[in-house]
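Input:
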Amino acid sequence: MSATPGPAAERREVAVVAFAQSDHARDTAEVSEAELLLPVLQDALGQAGLRAGEIDFTCSGSSDYLAGRAFSFTMALDSVGAWPPIAESHVETDGAWALYEAWVKLLTGTAETALVYAYGKSSSGAVRDVLTRQLDPYYLAPLWPDSVSLAALQAQALIDAGDTDEAALAGIAARARADAAANPHARHSGPVPPGEYVVRPLRTADCPPVTDGAAAVVLAAGDTARRLCDRPAWIRGMDHRVEAHALGVRDLTDSPSTRLAAERAGAFEQPVDSAELHAPFTAQEVVLRKALRLDDRVRINPSGGALAANPMMATGLIRIGEAAQAVRRGASRRALAHATSGPCLQQNLVAVLEGEPR
Amino acid sequence: MSEGGAPGSGTPRPGASRAAVSKEPVAVVGIGQTRHVAARRDVSLAGLVREAARRALDDAELSWQDIDAVVIGKAPDFFEGVMMPELYLADALGAVGKPILRVHTAGSVGGSTALVAADLVAARVHRTVLTLAFEKQSESNAMWGLSLPVPFQQPLLAGAGGFFAPHVRAYMRRTGAPATVGSLVAYKDRRNALKNPYAHLHEHDITLEKVQASPMLWDPVRYSETCPSSDGACAMVLTDRAGARRAPRPAAWMHGGAMRSEPTLFAGKDFVSPQAGKDCAAAVYRQAGVADPRREIDVVEMYVPFSWYEPMWLENLGFAAPGEGWKLTESGVTELDGDLPVNPSGGVLSANPIGASGMIRFAEAALQVRGQAGEHQVPGARRALGHAYGGGSQFFSMWLVGAEPPAT
Amino acid sequence: MPPTSRTPDADAPEVLSAPLVVEFPFTRSLGPVQSAFLTGLRERVVLGVRTGDGRVLVPPVEYDPATAEEIRDLVEVGTTGTVTTWSWNPAPRPHQPLDTPFAWVLVRFDGADTALLHALDAPGPDAVRTGMRVRVRWAAERTGAITDIACFEPYEGDGRGDATPHDGEFTDPVTGITAPARLDYTYSPGRAQSRYLAALAGHRTVGERCPSCRKVYVPPRGACPTCGVATRDQVEVGPRGTVTTFCIVNIKAKNLDIDVPYVYAHIALDGADLALHARIGGIPYDEVRMGLRVEPVWRGDGRYPDHYRPTGEPDADYDSYKELV
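Output:
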C-alpha cells in the first residue's frame, strides 16, 4: 500500500456546522420516508441559515433492503427540493459514509457546503431477518443467522477471553440508558432491567431498540463554516477500513479495522475526551474501547448511543452529529466519532472532531 | 457553485477559501471488463468482480498491495438478493485493511462510482484507487427487481420499455423526427459491438431490415431497439500524477466530471431533455474548457438503453441544437467512421449489466483517448465524453477524459 | 392480512399500511472452489483451501482474505472439530437450521485454521462451552448446499489431524444453488398518500398544492419535490384530462391480465401540474393520439380507475399541454 499523500495539515479545513435528528420511534407508520425526513432537513438547513439551493453537494445514506423497496432513495429525494438540479450522490450504507463522501468532495475544493442525510425505518421489516441478507450468500445467508445471534457469538468470545462478563455488559446497558435520559431524541432511556436472554449471553438490555428515524448534517469548509455558525466542529481527520467478511477468519475480540481507521484519522495523536461509538450491542463497546485505547477518563456515548436509539443507516451519522454537538456546546474539546457496518463490526469509520482554535 | 469551481448562482463566498485549493489531476491507468453475457454460470459474484478488477490491475501492471482504496457501485441490492454485497466482496477485491465505499445512484451508478473514486485522488486522500461496478442479473430477473409491487401504488402497466416509450413519442412529436431514426441507432450500435470482444450481443447477421422488422414491443420502440440484460463487471484504476508517470501504458486524464440530480417526478419535468442532464454536461464542459462540444469532443460513450435516446441525448448534451439531434444520427455523424462517433463499443444496446453500464461508458471513453480500444478505436481520439443516467431520467453522471494531462 | 389503518391526525381519516412481501428464488452460480466444497458436503466430505502461507481455511474461499491472492489448493479435513465460540438461541427464527432451541457455533474443523458458522444441537446452554468437541450431523437428503450439514452435535473423541490434499473432483458436481429468500415487510405510504387514497375511494382525485410554487401534485407525496416544503392544501382535480403522450403495449406482462395491444398513456388531469399514468380504453388502440380528452372509468371496487376513455370533446391543442409532456 502506498503512503497517504501529503500531511493532513495541508488539507482544507472542513467542519460540521449543523446537525438535526428526528425524535426516534419504534414505528413511524404514519409518515413516508420523505415525510420523516422533511422536518429534519429543514431543521439542519435552518441552523446553518441556508436554503436547499445554496448547498453545493448533497449525499445520503439508506438501504433498499431495510425499506423493502428497490430505488427507495429516489423518493426520499422529494424532501430535498432538488430544483434547480443539484450535485448529489447516495451510498447504500450508513449515512456516516455519505458524510465521508461529502467530506472528500469538500477537500477537493470544488464545494464549500454539503448536506448529508440518512434515514431508516427499521420497523418496516423484521430487521434481524433482513440483516441475514447481508451475509455471504453461499455459506451463511442460507442458514439465516440473525444479527443478535452473531453479536452474541462475539460477546461470548469476549467473555471467554476474559475481556468482559455479563455484569459488565449490564453496566454498559444501564449507563447508556441513564445517559439517554438527557437526550430528547432517544427512544430508550432511564433504568431498564437486564431482561431475558435474547440470544445468550445477550439479554434484552444488551440489544438496541428497533428504531425508525432520520438525521442530517451540514458540512462547510474554512471561513464558510465560520460564517455559518459560531462554533464549527472541525473534522481533524476521518478514515474507514474493512475486515474480512467471514466471522471464522476474524478475531472477534478485536477490531483491527477500527484501530487502523483511528490511526489514519489521527485519533491517537492526542487524547480525546469523549467518544460516540456506534456499538449496537453492549459487548461491541468493549471491543471498540480496546481497539481505540479509550480509558475511563473518556466519556463514552453521552447521547446514550445506539442502545438508546438505533435508526439503522442513520445511527452512524448520528454518532458524528452528536460528537460535533458536544464540541460545539463546549462539552468536549476533542471528540471521537465512530460508525460501523456489517456483521460483528466488519467495517468501521472513525472521525476526530475539535473546536477552534487548534 | 458546483464541481466547476466557477461562480454560479449559489451562496456568495466572502473569503471562502483561505488557501487556494488545487485538485490533484486524476489519471486512468488500468481498465478491465468481463465479457458481458446473459448469464455467467461459471463464476460466483466474487469471481465476476474479481475478473474485471484483475484485468484492470494487469493493465496498470499493479498488484493488490498498490491499491489504497476501493469504490464499488451497483444498482439495487435486490437484483442479486444480497444486501450490501460489498461486505462479502471485500475479500475478493483485496479491500481487507483498506477503505471500501459503496455507491448507489440507480442507473447512473457506474459513472457516479468512478467520480467518487476520482475525488479520492483529486482530494489527495489516496493515491491509487480501484473502482468497480457490476451486476449479475442472472441471479434474479431484472424485471422482477425493477417492478417489485408496492402496496397501494398503481402497478406499472407496461414494463420497463413502457416507461420510456411515451417519452420517445414525445421526442418525435417535438422534433418531427422520422420513425426510422431509432432503427439506425440500433443497427449502428449492434455493428459496432461486433468490433468489441466484451459486448454481450454479437449479431453477425444484423441488417437494417432486420432491425426494422423486429417486433414492435412498446410502440414506438421495437425489440431490436432495446437493451439486453447482462452479467458483467467493469473496473478502473485511478491514480495521481506520480502514478501516471509509472504506468506502463498511456493514461487517460480526467478533464471534468460532474453529477446532477433532479426529483423523480415534478411539475415542469422535461423527460425528453432533463435539466439535470443539461446542467451536468455544462459543468463538465466548463471544467474541461470546452466551448463547442460538437467540435471539441472526438467520441462519446453515452447511456442509450433504447435506441431513440441517442438523438435525445445528443441534444441534451449540447452536441446538437434542440430538435436537431436526430439529424446527426440520420446523416451518419454518429457512425464509427463519422464525425462524432457515438458508442463505438456498441453501447448499452449491446451489453447491459445495469450497475456496470455507466462505468463501461466511462471506461470506454478512457480506452479511446488511451488508443487502447482495439478494433473499435476511433483514430486519433483526443477527448472523449462518458455519460450515464438513471432513475426516472433524473440522475446524471459524466466525465470528460483526454489524452493529455489537464493544465494545472 | 388485510391493510390496516390508524388515525394520527385530524385531517387524515386514516393512515394506511399493508403487508409487503419481497420473495425470489435467487439462482447462484458457485465458481470452482465453492462448487467443490458444496459438492463435497453432498458426498459427506469437508474440504478446505490452503493459503500461500500454509493456513487451511474451512469453509474454503476463492480469495485469501489476508493477501487477496487467488487460492485453489484444496484439502480434505475431518468431519469433527472444536467450538471456538457459541451463543444460545432459545427461540429459533424462520429458516434457521433447527426449529428447537440450539446453539450457534463457530467450529474449527480438525485440520483447519479457521472456523465455520453453523448450528449445534445440544440439550441446553449448560451443555455448550467453548472448546467442546463436535462432529457433523449430515442431512438425510443432501443436494450440495451448506444445509447438507444439518447441524453439529456433541462428540467425545479425537479427530483426524492434518489436512490432506484433495483434487476437488466429484462426479456430477454442483455448479449452482437456488437460494429462496422471502422477507415480510409492512409498507406505509404516509399521510399524503393516505389522504389521496381516501379521496380516491370516493372516486375523487385530490392533489396537494405547494405553498411555495403553487403547483398541484397528483398523487401528492407530502413534499413538493422542487421546493422541499410540505404540501397541505387539498385541491380536487379532474376527473377529465388530456393524453399528453403514450405508447402501445404489444407484449403481455406476466402479472397483468390485460389483452394486448393496449395503450399506456400519460394523462394530465384538468387542474394538475403533472401527468399520471393509466390505460386508455373505449377506443381502438391505433386511434389514440396526443391531446385526446379522456375521463376515468371505474370498475368494481378497484382502488384506481380501471382505465380512461375518450370524452368526445375536441382534442386539446398541443401548446396547451406541451409543458406537461
